[in-house]
Amino acid sequence: MNQAECTQQTSSQAAPTPPAIRLGNIDKSFTNGNQTIEVLKNVNLTVSPQAIVGLIGASGSGKSTLLNIISGIMKPDRGQVCIYGAPSEEFNDWRSVSYMFQDDRLLPWRTAIRNVEFALEADSMPKNERARRAFEALQLVELEGFEDAFPYQLSGGMRSRVALARSLVTEPRILLMDEPFSRLDAQTRMLMHEELLRIHQLKRMTVVFVTHDVAEAVLLADQVAVMSPRPGTIREVVDITPPRPRDITRPEVTSTMQRLRALI
Amino acid sequence: MAKNSTELIDAKLPAQPLFRGLRPDLVGQRLVLVVAVIGIWWLSSLSVPHYILPGPARVWDALQLIVTNGDLWNNLGITLWRVAVGFTVAALIGLPFGIVLGANRRAGEFFEPVIPVLNTVSSAIWAIFAIIWFGISNATTIFVVFMTAMPLIITNVWQGTRTVNADFIELAQVLRMPQWKVMTKIYLPTILPYFFSGARLAFGFGWRVSLVAETIGSSSGVGYRLRQAADLIRTDQVFAWTLTLVIMMAIIEMGMMKPLENYLFRWKKDAEAQ
Ligand SMILES: Nc1ncnc2c1ncn2[C@@H]1O[C@H](COP(=O)(O)OP(=O)(O)OP(=O)(O)O)[C@@H](O)[C@H]1O
Ligand SMILES: [Mg+2]
């Protein structure tokens, strides 16, 4: 496909701006030795600008693979990825796309703050400006006082919060997150949910996040995409309509959760 | 960063000293060991002629002589200089070469057999070649140190390059980092510990083989002085030179290499503490 195909299909839509992310007929399989596994099969997904989309599905259904493909570090076998109306290969503002991996990927030889700064080092930027922004990002994830700790000195939850700070520090237009809160305790997780929604109110970035927690998906997302396992396809995209802040004890919220559970 | 944040850290994190604190009980143990060795040395020297085994007092006199007449500093200086030059050249060639061999599969496969072969050639053989090629000169010792140190550094750096974490490369890829930044920000820090241990090994070996080279291919330096003292059967001087070498090595190893390593690699989980 080409540029025309990325924009053409969007021009027929009512929205004047192209979707932030558009996936068209994505296939992906892996070959391990002599066996080939089909991981993604004909995946279609459209994410509007500024939307928060949750991605849920069984383990191994290809959620991480899908984020890898959106971020451009993995090529699909077939199909088209469009970012803001441009084919992935031609899109040139990748530094406005952040990807928080499923593992924290902190560089062990760097302190927490230097790990956050890493995301700003692709471009040139004054050193103190970089440090200031990294410090603010660490404050955001409640890690003041741990700037100079090395990763081995931090707990798993703290490490994933450093990774979260690293993905936020660039103030991305698109934020991809692979199970960003799965290693946090309930208390911190709630704080981070509030923080994410607050930042989203402020910056209005597009968010795609993977989670295994249906309640989390329903609390945060505008839409939840449910993936079926092997080969992974988007089984259904469910709109989450109740206004925020959402309360998981409210009947309209619990009924949505039940519906999602049934779909997985 | 806010000033008061450092205080917070101090309260929460274990201190990272440049020098590890000396344990008093360990210092005591070491002292006892030194006294015991000198005692046994003194006792054995009583029953043999001094040109076979000079006593501590005689060696002390010889040591004082070479210190006061400047012999020690001149020769130690020239030897150290030769080792440093050979070692530096080895590091400057070995580091990039090791990275290329590790990062480029074809280059690695092609050169793979060369390193073990180089490692098995004895330093004495390099010394003989060096005399044939360079005669009695600084270059002889430098060459031997270089030929001994370089394969060690290459081997270690090569190994280090293979441990570079593909996930970190992917992280840099997501950030669209330019290739040279990936080299300096991911490859280099990963390789550094391997380079460092290779360099330490190489420096130790280089220092030892420099003496061999100097005994046969030089008219100055500690190795030359050692042979001279041996030729004149001045065993007390042989002991004095040996002692200065041991002290010198201990100072470099414990006073410079170890603290530097502790500081550079303070991000590593301390395995000894577990
Ligand atoms: N690089 C790879 N090489 C080979 N197989 C892979 C690779 N990456 C993923 N897979 C396979 O693709 C399938 C989907 O993996 P993926 O990580 O996308 O799942 P997931 O939905 O993120 O699972 P989880 O919820 O456990 O994180 C798995 O069967 C996995 O073994
Ligand atoms: Mg995953």
Strand count, sense and barrel status of the largest sheet of chain A are: 6 strands, mixed
Shape label of chain A:
globular
User: What's the tally of helices of chain A?
Assistant: 8
Total helical elements of chain B: 12
Taken in chain order, the helices and strands of chain A follow as HEEEHEEEHHHEHEHEEH
Number of domains of chain B: 1
Instruction: Let me know the CATH homologous superfamily of chain B.
Output: MetI-like
> Which spans of chain B of ≥5 residues are poorly predicted at pLDDT below 50?
1-19
Question: Which fold name is given in CATH as the topology of chain B?
Answer: MetI-like fold
What is bound: which ligands?
adenosine-5'-triphosphate, magnesium ion
- Portion in beta strands of chain A: 25-35%
| SS content category of chain B | mainly alpha
Report helical residue fraction of chain B.
over 70%
Q: What Rg of chain B, in angstroms, do the CA atoms define?
A: 23 Å
Quaternary structure type: heterodimer
3D architecture notes:
The complex is a heterodimer of chains A (264) and B (274). Chain A is of the alpha/beta class. Chain A has a domain at 104-171. Chain A is 34% helix and 25% strand. In chain A, strand 1 (21-32) and strand 2 (35-47) form a beta hairpin. In chain A, helix 3 packs across helix 4 (127-140), helix 4 packs across helix 5 (156-168) and helix 7 (214-220) packs across helix 8. Chain A is globular and about 45 Å long. Chain B has a single domain (61-273), classed as MetI-like fold, CATH 1.10.3720. Chain B is 79% helix and 0% strand. In chain B, 29% of the residues are buried. In chain B, helix 3 packs across helix 12 (235-264), helix 4 packs across helix 5 and helix 7 packs across helix 8. The interface between A and B is medium-sized, with 32 and 29 residues. Adenosine-5'-triphosphate is lined by residues 30, 32, 37, 39, 57, 59-65, 102 of chain A.
